[in-house]
Amino acid sequence: MAQSMDSRMLSSLQELLHIDVDAVMLYDAALRILAVPMAEQALMEFRSDHLRHIRELNDCIERFGGERACIGVNAEQCDLHGFTPIEEGMPLEAVFMAMVDGEQITTETYERILKEDWTQEIRTLIDRNFADEQRHLLWVLKASRTRMWEQDAETPIPL
């Protein structure tokens, strides 16, 4: 039997869930286009973080009577919550800027929703995911500022 939760709070968790689904789609698009070995490892790790967020948020939402989100959707079906879409043929600088844009939106959404009145268990989950988002944002900002795609493959940007 599902536990009860205020519909506004359930809606906030679903918003986080959907933004993480969209982030996975954004990472998938970036990984298809980028041929920058230094970036691939970080982007695959960040994509995995978003997949973990989706699993954990889905479990939490389901426990409180909400519906699980499907993550096997096609990128064209995603809302992308204001993210800049990544498309074939984009310059690498534009791909990295789209990643910055996506992580800024995701980080701001987590920060806003974290301000709501949550149980300790849910606050811990949201706070942990928010910390991941801050780490992702710092990395993509640094990669973009340093024009990582133009650098020697021997100079990785730490995660």
From TrEMBL:
Domain of life: Bacteria
InterPro entries with a match to the protein in the record: Ferritin-like, Ferritin-like_SF
CDD domains assigned: Ferritin_like
Name of the protein described by the UniProt record: Ferritin-like domain-containing protein
Organism: Cystobacter fuscus
